[in-house]
Amino acid sequence: MEEQIRTTVNIAGRSYSLKVSKSDSQTVQAAAELLNKKFQEMKLHFQSSDSQDHLAMSAIMNMTEQLKKSSPDESLLEEISSKLDSANIELMKVMKS
């Protein structure tokens, strides 16, 4: 069993302490960095003052990109993509109002 270490990531201005395998530590840090980058993009594109909306949009966009990169069963991918698109549309409506 691989050694577990504690690492802290900052996401949307908040710190989170995680216990991860030593080999995953850099990947977790990189994931937090990418999420923060997408979070900043969402803040620029949508004028909502609610950081949770921006974070939710960031998570959806990142997961959509990840799902497109992996190649699971085509029908499953289409179903997930459709659900994510619907959620994205609803969140965009909320953020624009």
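^ that was protein a. below is b, sequence first then the tokens
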Amino acid sequence: MKPDPAQPVTIWAVSDGRAGIENQVLGLAEAVARVIAARIIVKRILYEPAFDRWPTVLKLWPDRMLAADSDRIEAPYPDIWIAAGRATLPFSLRMKTRSDGKTLVVQLQDPKEKLSAFDLVIAPEHDEVRGENVLSLLGSTNRITPERLTAEAAGWQDLAALRPPRVAVLVGGKSKTHDLTPARARSMAAAIRQAVGSGSLLMTLSRRTPDDARAVFHDVLGDLPGFIYDGQGGNPYFAVLDAAEHILVTEDSVNMATEAAVTGKPVYRLAMDRLRAEGKFARFHDALEHRGIVRPFEGTLKTWTYTPLNETARAAAKVVEVFNHKARRQ
């Protein structure tokens, strides 16, 4: 049965609840809802500790493996399923069957599974996923829009009053590919301090930022006008992007670099300690630099312009196109 155009479609935004993953599915769901009338429901899939690290192929009965505080994945199923992350795959792979083919199944990132299980796979260019049902994006989907930044900034009006240049510094941390040692943090902080000069610092630290690196940043930069946000109190992230005139981002995070690129402001890449040889992160940053969005941070601040990245809107348009095509065939 075809959807009633007078009724909003139902979208499930499905992840394991981690902010970086959930923001991708929510960002795409919200972008779709700006194109067609839709009701968004957030679903978080959490497994019992005994099963959490099991590979997807062994999660044959995923419903029985869910933790007590996990959302249940039960009928009635949504019109559009948008999911990201390893935890969602046991359900994403079964959603076509469970819904009798009625649900449009959209998977973000490289699923590393049979692509035909999904109606649409939306993956970063640097993952080099190829297929007829694959849309490649520069970076990741996100929730950044000019309207959201303006709305969030309303609760942080004091940021715009800080002395220019207002320099945002978005810091990640230790991952499989990168690290942030105290020595690296100290050299990074010294260069940031020199670049900020008589301006203001708007620094946000991640859950992944090592404690010893946090201490270095507070020690070297703590007396500058502005603040270092380390998770206490309300999160000023969106307001920081709105107020900043320059944005510095550590190279370990595709999400943060992509979100910064949506603003149209100069974005600098902060080098980190690399634990693996150059690979997909290098391809990602090379693509941003080729478009004139990002430059390596070398201790000074300059101003340049570029067309703001708007890949989330492109992904949403593709989802709506595939959804309408599927509806016409049902």
